Amino acid sequence: MEKKRFYVSVQARSILEGQGDAAYEFEIDASEEDIDRLKAMFDEIEAFEQDGWYRSHVPFVPYHNDQANDGYDYYLKEVYMLLYETGTEETKRHLSTMMDGFATMGQPEA
């Protein structure tokens, strides 16, 4: 499959073809199939985010029993894995540093 350069903002859930079209965090080289998968994951994140908003108004549901948060977290991780798989070398380096940070979160400094 032919791959093209895209510019992705996870925060804005946008996938751009033009580098100067809007702000972005990551550059990827992806096929149309990859982009379709990424769009579907962004749609899932949006749905779980809306569910989480409604759930947030029900204070007696603990976070660790919250399917909306679990779904949101799952798809966000899937997005970052796909971005790593399709990312440029710079994107892969950046995501690697993010993942290192996630691995040490909450641990005391040496």
Structure characterization notes:
The structure is a single chain. The protein is an alpha+beta fold. It has one domain. 54% of the residues lie in helices and 13% in strands. The chain contains three helices and three strands; from the N terminus they run E-E-E-H-H-H. The chain has a three-stranded antiparallel beta sheet with strand order 2-1-3. Strand 1 (4-9) and strand 2 (14-16) form a beta hairpin. Helix 1 runs antiparallel to helix 2 and helix 2 (67-86) runs antiparallel to helix 3 (89-103). The mean pLDDT is 86.
Sheet of most strands:
3 strands, antiparallel
**Strand content of the residues, in percent?**
5-15%
User: Percentage of helical residues?
Assistant: 40-55%
Query: How many angstroms does the end-to-end distance come to?
Result: 46 Å
User: If you compute it from the alpha carbons, what radius of gyration comes out, rounded to the nearest whole angstrom?
Assistant: 16 Å
Q: How do the SSEs run, as a string of H and E?
A: EEEHHH
Q: Ranges with pLDDT <50 over ≥5 residues? A: none
Question: How many independent structural domains?
Answer: 1
- Overall pLDDT score: 86
Protein name: Hydrolase
